[in-house]
Amino acid sequence: MAKPLSEYNRKRDFEITTEPSGAAPGSKRKASALSFVIQKHDARNLHYDFRLELDGVLKSWAVPKGPSLDPSQKRLAVHVEDHPLGYGNFEGSIPAGQYGAGDVIVWDRGVWQPHDDPHKAYAAGKLKFSLIGEKLSGDWALVRTRLKGSGDKEQWLLIKEKDPQARPAADYDIIEAEPNSVISDASVGKPKPRAKKTAALPAQLTPQLATLVDRAPEGDWNYEIKFDGYRMLARIRDGEVRLFTRNGHDWTDRLPRQAKALHALKLQDSWLDGEMVSLNSDGLPDFQALQNAFDTGRSLDIVYYLFDAPFLNGRDQREDTVEDRRASLKAALAGSKSKLLRFSEAFAANQRDIFESACNLALEGVIGKRAGSPYVSSRSADWIKLKCRFRQEFVIVGYTRPQGSRSGFGALLLAVNDDTGLAYAGRVGTGFDQAALKNIYAKLTPFERKTSPLEKPLTSAQARGVHWVEPTLVGEVQFAEWTREGLVRQAAFVGLRTDKPATQIIHEQPRTAKSVKPKTVGSGVNISHPDRIIDKHSGTQKQQLAQFYDDISEWILPFLRHRPVSLLRAPEGIDGEPFFQKHSERLAIPHIKQLDPRLDPGHARLMEIHTTGALLGAVQMGTVEFHTWGATSDKIETPDLFVLDLDPDPALPWKAMLEAAQLTLSVLDELGLQAFVKTSGGKGLHLVVPLARRDDWDTVKAFAKAIAQFMAQQLPERFTATSGPKNRVGKIFIDYLRNARGASTVAAYSVRARPGLPVSVPVSREELEGLRGAQQWTVATLQQRLQGLKTDPWAGYANRQKISKKMWDKLGAHPPK
């Protein structure tokens, strides 16, 4: 008898391919539902590999046309060798010469539930089952046929059963509608050409923006020059060409020759994306020359480098891969004879070599675009920017008198917008030639004012000799680094920007930035061993974790103040041995508040984090996570909230979690209770229900338990109210146990001690449907979300709700006596 996975191993050389090796299935496995995965595989022919977990392996079928939601379409499924369970997470490229050479993505995954004994049904060749996946759901069947295939491979049919999830193929093709990976959003294979859309071309289009990073990430990325120019979108509609800045201002009249060159392409309705650039004598971008060209009206010197085509010749290409969009754009430009239009080529070299070469040529940096990514009208992690030096825009708030023979002004005072207003960011006094000094001074004088526009006054030394101006003009500056005081160092002026409003200028922070490593953070807390790695996965250091908490202190402190806190400490990093600390004990945590000993008799004092100093003092002592009680210390016996922790079987897809959250919120709505949602930073979601301080711990916990039991009774196939992995197989455990006295829940905006350092983040009800996972935001990405928020996602949170008898009655339960 052949050993398990022997055929799988025989076909592969694991010193060449990155596919997981086929070790023998283990005898022990954690209790979990049976998993399924469908991988889209671009080998000799594009096909879909359908895999079901059984007996510690993935039973596998190759489905050439992929699954269909139409029960009338019986899709051929060729039975192939078993694969190891680890293959269910495999995405990547199988090298040429290896079995199945080509690209692989995870098209769908989740759990499968056999309707009968799966072993007997599989042996009989008639498997009936339900799928709970990100894309596929409902009832399905795999049926063995008597058809002869190549070699000895069995021919089966994959059939969708008639149920509410079934849809006619004429109405909906899920293969075409959802082509990308559920893990990475990557795509493989050439997408089917889509019919031209009859809808009118959008009148306006917001461009995709890149996220600043401090190093090139792993993965498949394409890199281009970061042009030192003005971002410009071209709209071609009914033969008319209009050119718009990134903020939607029409600059067609300023760029008549470029518009004429685009018109000559004779494109149908299109939106093209690119950068307007002036080149110096060496053929390199020169921002000052570009500014001069606009000032003098010499648009003949401006070249339009095009790098994307969200719409082209009447077709919406935004869901196409970046490679396909760029290929169609390049083909459209091939017939152009104008020197004013150029295609932005991507580089084939290693990204580190590309970046180093760009910096050696004194370029601004490079732009990376994730292979397979779509075009989105927002700032996206699929586009990244690496800058050779720190460089960004600043609001000009004043200038100093010139010294010696210099005319115009001496230096410009710079500022950025923060949560309180305009914050001083230093000054720049170099990078100006005589023409720039004269031109900028002429633009400054009409905006002079008598008082400072800054939120906080400068020292008398900093303000000496300053002429204040209205915060209207924007200048671009390159500099060596940010100081710990938030000022630029070794700054040089690049040029004025007229394409960005002053109100949008903020302190740009690269993800996982490591440029500033002081030993103290804003509160003055000394951080020992600042370079100690807290998380090997992201490379985050202790100093960076402290800086993160310092930066978000105003967001997290409202959820920590006045409550007993428990600390998850990881002095040796999260790969060490973290431990939980509920009491102050003998270890002195800097600035922490010790609570009244009567709150927890017989133990050392409970603790509270009430200031930024206490927050960072805890981080200095190795704290990563902050957990709080459901009551405040002044009324410790009457909770002011309860939490329902939706804890899924790990095999369930994220879609099942979102559906569970919506169902639970519907029950809470029916009870008349307003709930607030946050990601756990782990596997699930937390639903937080604020309460008036009236009922005791036993009553509140019993009420949370009644909700959990009600959900489990109404939908036993989805929920369980009983803890333990064996009880949640294929289900979601509604954990109400953390509502007992002395129990705690991870606080909103707390980091979690998990690879990548995800954060527990509040979200609005409107955002829930778009969540991609419980670990969507991390230490590296949370600031970008916070800076982009227009309103607090938990606006309206108030502790006024009371548990009523009517609520108990609706749940069919009674309060404890």
From TrEMBL:
Pfam families listed in its UniProt record: DNA_ligase_A_C, DNA_ligase_A_M, LigD_N, LigD_Prim-Pol
GO annotation, biological process: DNA recombination; DNA repair
Keywords: ATP-binding, DNA damage, DNA recombination, DNA repair, DNA-binding, DNA-directed DNA polymerase, Exonuclease, Hydrolase, Ligase, Manganese, Metal-binding, Multifunctional enzyme, Nuclease, Nucleotide-binding, Nucleotidyltransferase, Transferase
Domain ATP-dependent DNA ligase family profile: start-end pairs: 203-387
Catalytic activity: ATP + (deoxyribonucleotide)n-3'-hydroxyl + 5'-phospho-(deoxyribonucleotide)m = (deoxyribonucleotide)n+m + AMP + diphosphate
InterPro entries cross-referenced by the UniProt entry: DNA_ligase_ATP-dep_C, DNA_ligase_ATP-dep_cent, LigD_ligase_dom, LigD_PE_domain, LigD_pol_dom, NA-bd_OB-fold, NHEJ_ligase_prk, NHEJ_LigD
Cofactor(s) required for function per UniProt: Mn(2+)
Sequence segments annotated as region (Disordered): 1-30
The DNA ligase D polymerase domain, residue ranges: 542-794
Domain annotation DNA ligase D 3'-phosphoesterase: ranges: 39-144
Catalytic class of the enzyme: ligase
Domain DNA ligase ATP-dependent C-terminal: residue ranges: 406-500
The protein's Enzyme Commission number: 6.5.1.1
GO molecular function terms listed in the Swiss-Prot or TrEMBL record: ATP binding; DNA binding; DNA ligase (ATP) activity; DNA-directed DNA polymerase activity; exonuclease activity; metal ion binding
CDD domains: Adenylation_DNA_ligase_LigD_LigC, OBF_DNA_ligase_LigD, PaeLigD_Pol_like
Protein name per the record: DNA ligase (ATP)
Organism lineage: Bacteria, Pseudomonadati, Pseudomonadota, Gammaproteobacteria, Pseudomonadales
